[in-house]
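Risk register update: the risk that structure generation would not scale has been downgraded. Supporting records follow, first protein first.
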Amino acid sequence: MTDSAPLAASDIPLMQGLAQRVTALRPDLISAGASYGELAWIHGKDHAAQGAGWRRRLWFAGAELVAWGWAFLPHRVRRDDGSVTDVTGASLSHQVHPAHAGLVDEVIEWFDAVAAGLERTASPTTADGYALTRWAAHGYEPDTRALGDSGDWTQLNQRDLTDVEHPVLPPGFRFRTAGEAGPRAAVRAHVDAWSPSPYTARSYEGVRRTAAYRADLHVLVEAPDGTMAASTIMWLDHMNRTVEFEPVGTHPAYRRLGLARAMMLHGMRLARAAGATHATVVCLGAPGHPRARGLYRGLGFRELSRDAPLIRLADREPAAPSGTGSPPCGSSPGGGTRG
């Protein structure tokens, strides 16, 4: 393994490589924030403002990365409306290859050490039965707030691209790419859709610098008055011939016009022309967040997996966990799919 260190841009392609290998074997075991596209998106948009509070550790088998942990330590978030939020706890994004499932104990122990004294959260998948037993042994419990009716747990949805219907926009609207519209329009489209948002021109510059970003797969919908009314970025994983939508957003004044549906259909057709045969998108899964889930279901996406959000309060320090032996090499730590 490598020592704990600040996360570097050069770590992201290594972590994406593990995401690709896990996706090829067990896509339901991809942890929250650990997919090929989410790794690029999260690092690209946030490293300038938040990167000082990021720590990572990498585990290798020979020259091959087989596990990693990415700790997000306390930080401040500033948004375009002037609001500020101080994040006082620590959260973990992580991934372990299923053939090395026993490393989850080392990932947890590292996270507990780097975030000692803080409230800590993590989101493995419900499909990873072995990992869930290990998290419990280390004192982590289901996060009841995240799991509530208006909670923020997410589900991963998928569909194939063999039959994608033709997109239809309202009169006067047209599709654009970020390459055509330019950086200012791309940033404005995201901020309008997600306001209040911490996203800035500097955030977008970080996204553009990621090796996985393609301006021709960054799609916008332009309204008749020139407003960029909707936008999405697609992240193409050539190894698995799959494309991931992250993020997807629509300007509040242009919602319920079918723009997001048309944009995603257009995007899927572009992705198919680029070599993809499969698409994924993440959405909030709780009952209190039905809109995006309904959109994606109407587009033919079906749930593949979901988070199992966990929390360990700062004042709960359990006894040393027992039974940390690894499953046999090559075995899966859990069966079925999330959900």
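Supporting record for the second protein:
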Amino acid sequence: MSKRWLDWAIAAGVAASLVVAGHPTSAAGYALLAASGLALVARRRAPIAVLATTGLTALGYQALGIDVPVIAFLFAVYSTMRAGHRVVTVAGSVLMLAALPLAALISPRDLTTAEAFAQSRDVLQIAWLIAAAAAGEALRQAERRADEAERTREETALRRANEERLHIARELHDSLTHQISVIKLQAEVAVHLAQKRGEEVPEPLLAIRDAGREASRELRATLEALRHDQDALHGIDDVPDLVQRARSAGLDAELSIEGERNAVPAAVERTAYRIVQESLTNIARHAAAATAKISIDYRPDALVIRVDDDGRANPAVAPNPGVGLLGMRERVTALGGKLDAAPRSEGGFTVQAELPVAQP
């Protein structure tokens, strides 16, 4: 809102200055001078259109014999250069420098060619043009560097947070592995002794033994995932290896890649790889599926990953969001994407992630 008011203030001030300095004697002169200044209201939203408008109105009031500097055009040059339209700014400035003497020649004051060129130099000095363009380019570069510095700080903070999370996870893994190994060993010894004596093994003891085995497997898988997380090189090109390993394990996995392969940010590449990896791991552990279909769709503004299986998931039963699904959701949300994971009505389970690829 403050920028809008500033634009209106600048536009009104320039329009008033032009009208006062120009002393127009006709309604057309008033209109052209006022329109030239008021056009600056839209200089942030449509800089190229404002450049054209201020240039044409300046030529118009010069042709009417109103000899005032083309202040609004200089503001437009600054705004267009700041928006990054260098070629348009240079081309518009050159055309303006060439057209101003012609406008002066057709004015009612009956100027000679030399006088027309002298007047055009008075209303638009090349030094003014260069200063306006240089100011716009300097501010654009400063804003770009500030954005890059902010993005670098965010990436550094995210990397440090991830490193701290990995460190905490490893510490927990080391501590829990020891304790669970002790519980598992004691439970298995107790079961073995009871069976050796011919006694009936209590159900709670069998449950403790089985839970210890399952916990040990889960912890080993967690440690493997943590080790893989250190490798930042995994990306979409590594997905075929995941699919091949799934086939080697007995899963009929099929991979399809659609769309035109565009440049994808590294963070999106890693997240896509992890989604396919975690989905295939969940299928192998929990789905009891025979087939799986993995599709990667390159879209202009997003990368869509979809993994379908024909496992035993039941749409009538709400899925239990395990650590794998929660981890996927965290990764996708951190990138500003969307994750859907749910059983299908025809049977099986679907994981679909949409990851934006456009850079801010």
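The radius of gyration is 35 Å. On this basis the risk owner (M.S.) recommends closing the item.
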